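Lecture notes, part 5. Sequence design as translation. It can be helpful to think of inverse folding as translation between two languages: the language of shapes and the language of residues. The source text, in structure tokens, appears below.
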């Protein structure tokens, strides 16, 4: 990995973990960015419960985390075509990112101590990226899957 790529990854982690207010509310943190497949983790907290009798995650929390992870994945996919650009130009792409469509399939109740959302690119075009996102709990159970389309240019 080049020095420019390392600087970009550090800038992405800082922006995602520290600068996006909604991510801070959710408590998300980037765990890894390996080969354009980011994993984002968050801990279960009382404020995230949707069903107070069962104690599971609210569906909106699941959707929000998966959308944030999908956007991060789309951004990384767009970066692969920009290797020749300066670090500043590559970071500016973040301001062009937006969700076009998001579909979530809730497979199990969101029960667990912590959760990992992992994304991967299905297609990265010049203007649109399509990604797949999975959410697993601390026991490795698949809680939800999603597909999102994001504008990247």
């Amino acid at each position: 990995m080049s020095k420019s790529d390392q600087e970009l990854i550090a800038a992405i982690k800082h922006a995602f973990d520290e600068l996006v207010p909604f991510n801070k509310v959710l408590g998300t943190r980037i765990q890894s960015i390996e080969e354009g497949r980011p994993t984002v983790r968050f801990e279960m907290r009382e404020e995230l419960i949707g069903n107070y009798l069962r104690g599971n995650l609210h569906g909106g929390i699941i959707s929000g985390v998966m959308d944030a992870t999908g956007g991060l994945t789309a951004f990384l996919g767009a970066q692969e075509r920009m290797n020749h650009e300066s670090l500043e130009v590559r970071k500016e792409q973040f301001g062009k990112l937006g969700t076009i469509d998001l579909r979530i399939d809730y497979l199990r109740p969101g029960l667990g101590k912590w959760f990992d959302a992992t994304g991967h690119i299905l297609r990265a075009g010049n203007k649109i990226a399509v990604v797949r996102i999975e959410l697993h709990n601390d026991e490795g159970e698949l809680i939800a899957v999603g597909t999102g389309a994001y504008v990247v240019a």
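The translated text above is only one of many valid answers, since several sequences can fold into similar shapes. Strands lie at 29-34, 37-43, 49-51, 56-57, 98-106, 114-124, 128-137, 142-151.
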